[in-house]
Structure formats: structure tokens, C-alpha cells
Design brief:
Strand order of the largest sheet: 5-4-3-6-7-9-8
CATH class: Alpha Beta
Distance between the termini: 52 Å
CATH architecture: 3-Layer(aba) Sandwich
Structural class: alpha/beta
Number of helices: 12
Length: 277
């Protein structure tokens, strides 16, 4: 029997772009992420996805970004089979199903109540998995989570939307609550925050980016328990460049841009470790 279609009001359509990019990849001849869960979700949503203002190349950059954070997640869980995962600003991402964590992992997807309500229509329950409808900057939701295991915090596509004081306060609360852990997110430089916001305005999309991370080590001073262990320039990742280079000219252009520190630092995938109490 065909699954019941999920109908969306227009104001909820903003959650769909990243899901659609991953679904497009899933149907590609040589997929990056191969996220069949995203493809199934798109098939169930009653919406004209072709009308979405997906950024150019989003069917490449979005699954590539997700795959890199998946890799970090798998590595953490392999080293910490009894742990907690906080997927902050999860949107409609299907990471918990892609990763399929073991029985000793407690996984929390956290996003605004309306997003969680939509997730509940699209995705099934599973053992050890809980959805929490709250703003990530509110303290109450974190206080409801046991702080007795190492934690992995994934904040993919989130931090640039938070004001710096709210983001650093959130990170301090996390490092105080858990005995140890890792925090991984994509940090935009100040220039990238301004660029994306301007381009979105031109395209008529509603995007409000506010927090730029120009020096990843500065966060170590703002959240003293954090230690930067990995910083990866996303735009210069070899496979991403290869996928985006459609011809010799674009390949040369990407190579030239990749030699510029300004360009390399526009988007970085950052991974921090901490020892808490």
C-alpha cells in the first residue's frame, strides 16, 4: 500500500532544500551519499520540489558535506560505543538512519517544534532515539539529557545562524554537562556569511546568517575546555572539486582559487574535543 502523502504549508518549505539535494544525489548514477531515506521522504512529501531555490551545485555540496560529518560520526561511535549523540538543528536530515548506531548509543535529534512535528510524520521511531522540539539555544532541553557518557555534538548547517554569544553559551553548557566529547560543525568565515546572505537576497530566498568564524582557535578562548583537533577546508576537498569541475576551465579555476587562503577558509569543517567535569 502506498504511504500517505505529507502535506506542507508554505512556511515549512524552507526545510526542504537540503533534503532535496540529498534525494537528487541518491538518484544519481554515481551517488556521493546515496541517502535512500532522503529519497523516500521526498517521494512522500506533497510539494513541487523543482520550485525550490536550491543553490547551484547543491546536489553535490549538500551530500558531500553530510558524508563528511557521517564519517566523523562513525569514527566517534567506533571509539565510544556507549555514548550520546546530539544532532543539533537536525532539520529533515536522516543521519540516525544512515549511521544506524549501536544499542548503547543514545541519539537525540533537536530542532524547533514545527520541524520535529514534520519529522514525526516522515520518519519512524527506533530504539535509543528521541526527538526533541526546542530552540537549541534554550537551556531546558539539555538539562533533560543524562550527562553520564561521552557525547558527540553535530551541528551541521547550524552555527552560522546563531548569534555568537548564544552559540558560545550553548557550547559552554555542553562542555559542562558531559564528561568528555567532540563537537563538529561547519564554520563560515565572516566573508562567507556576508556573501551567502547577499546572494540569498538576490535569489529571493530567506537566509539570515550572523556568525562568522574567522579564527577557529578563538573559540578555544571563548569556551576554555574546547581544543581544536581538525580543520578541513570544505571547498577544497579533492572529491568536491572533482565533482564540481565539469570541464578543464572550471578545473583550472577551482585549482587557482584553492591556492588562496581567503577561499580555503570560507567554509571549514571544524572538530573540537573536550574533557568536561
Amino acid at each position: 500500500m502506498e504511504a500517505k502523502k505529507v502535506h506542507l504549508s508554505k512556511d515549512k518549505a524552507t526545510y526542504l532544500a537540503t533534503l532535496y539535494g540529498k534525494a537528487m544525489d541518491a538518484s544519481a548514477e554515481s551517488p556521493i551519499l546515496g541517502d535512500r531515506f532522503a529519497a523516500d521522504a521526498v517521494a512522500r512529501i506533497d510539494y513541487d520540489f523543482e520550485a525550490l531555490k536550491l543553490p547551484r551545485g547543491g546536489e553535490i555540496t549538500l551530500p558531500m558535506r553530510a558524508r563528511h560529518f557521517d564519517q566523523w560520526t562513525r569514527a566517534f561511535l567506533a571509539a565510544n560505543p556507549e555514548s550520546t549523540v546530539l544532532h543539533l538543528g537536525c532539520g529533515l536530515d536522516t543521519r540516525v538512519y544512515r549511521i544506524d548506531p549501536g544499542p548503547k548509543v543514545r541519539w537525540f535529534d533537536v530542532d524547533l517544534p514545527e520541524v520535529i512535528a514534520l519529522r514525526e510524520q516522515l520518519y519512524p521511531e527506533r530504539e535509543g532515539y528521541r526527538r526533541m522540539g526546542a530552540s537549541v539555544t534554550e537551556p531546558a532541553w539539555l538539562e533533560a539529557i543524562p550527562g553520564d557518557t561521552p557525547v558527540l555534538v553535530i551541528a551541521e548547517g547550524l552555527m552560522m545562524y546563531l548569534h555568537e554569544k548564544d552559540g558560545t553559551a550553548l557550547l559552554r553548557r555542553i562542555t559542562e554537562r558531559f564528561p568528555s566529547g567532540q563537537i563538529a560543525f561547519d564554520g563560515y568565515s565572516g566573508a562567507m556569511v556576508r556573501l551567502v546572505s547577499r546572494l540569498a537576497t538576490v535569489r529571493g530566498a530567506k537566509v539570515e546568517l550572523v556568525w562568522g568564524v574567522d579564527d577557529p582557535h578563538a573559540l578555544e578562548k571563548q569556551v576554555p575546555k574546547l581544543r581544536l583537533v581538525e580543520s578541513v577546508g570544505f571547498l577544497t576537498m579533492p572529491e568536491l572539486v572533482g565533482r564540481l569541475s565539469k570541464n578543464g576551465f572550471t578545473r583550472v579555476m577551482h585549482g587557482a582559487m584553492g591556492r588562496l587562503p581567503f577561499y580555503r577558509n570560507l567554509v571549514r569543517h571544524l572538530r573540537y574535543e573536550f574533557q568536561g567535569r
